[in-house]
């Protein structure tokens, strides 16, 4: 199957390994990857800060970029996928009906990585191996906004040697929330402190998630508290055991 990769800004700039493992994983599952170099930021930071109108030009660039083919578009970040799924509404809000129609066609082709693997490719066991105890953090964008709940867990439950453990208030936000963590830093700090406390109670070896931004936030707090927990994106986990 031909697939477009949407790399996302945070993977491109901060976590290139996540993008790399996403490509390797999809190729392992039989996909041919296309990377369209004109792709740019989805506009999420501006949108979340109330500057939706100013983000329209970047949104149009993204729509135009992915109109060159009709392949599914896969991204290793639920927050970006959710932002793009809302493009038609944003264009309509500012009287851009033609762009809304074009954006709808693009948005319908966008998938979170785990959603694509489980619900499009029909795979729940990718043959990965990782021994140890882990906690999975369900990001708000994936869990609440996109409704992707079971897909990551199905994939992790089939990783040989991995024990996924529940924690108290597992579905509570980690406090990142994009610009929320900047504008409401004190509240955000308390939220991630509570999240780390709950994670630490079960003494895992790994913290796993499907949104890099959440993992950076929680991982930063774990590091500041001296916790020896390895933070991994699910794409990295699902490529473990490969030679």
Automatic annotation (TrEMBL):
A single MF term (Gene Ontology): oxidoreductase activity
Domain of life: Bacteria
GO cellular component annotations of the record: cytosol
Ranges of residues in domain Cysteine-rich: 3-85, 135-218
Pfam family, one: CCG
Protein name: L-lactate dehydrogenase complex protein LldE
Source organism (scientific name): Frederiksenia canicola
């Amino acid at each position: 199957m031909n697939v477009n990769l949407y790399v996302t800004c945070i993977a491109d700039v901060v976590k290139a390994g996540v993008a790399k493992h996403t490509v390797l994983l999809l190729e392992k599952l039989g996909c041919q990857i296309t990377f369209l170099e004109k792709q740019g930021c989805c506009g999420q930071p501006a949108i979340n800060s109330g500057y939706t109108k100013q983000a329209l030009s970047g949104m149009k660039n993204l729509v135009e970029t992915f109109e060159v083919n009709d392949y599914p578009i896969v991204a290793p970040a639920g927050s970006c996928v959710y932002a793009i799924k809302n493009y038609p509404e944003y264009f309509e809000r500012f009287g851009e009906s033609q762009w809304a129609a074009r954006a709808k066609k693009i948005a319908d082709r966008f998938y979170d990585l785990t959603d694509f693997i489980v619900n499009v490719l029909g795979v729940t066991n990718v043959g990965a191996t990782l021994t140890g105890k882990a906690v999975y953090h369900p990001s708000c964008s994936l869990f609440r906004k996109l409704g992707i709940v079971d897909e990551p867990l199905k994939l992790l439950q089939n990783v040989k040697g991995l024990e996924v453990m529940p924690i108290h208030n597992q579905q509570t936000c980690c406090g990142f929330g994009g610009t929320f963590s900047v504008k409401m830093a004190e509240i955000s700090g308390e939220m991630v402190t509570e999240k780390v406390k709950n994670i630490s109670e079960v003494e895992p070896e790994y913290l796993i998630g499907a949104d890099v931004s959440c993992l950076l936030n929680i991982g930063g707090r774990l590091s500041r508290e001296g916790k020896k927990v390895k933070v991994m994106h699910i794409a990295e986990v699902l490529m473990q055991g490969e030679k």
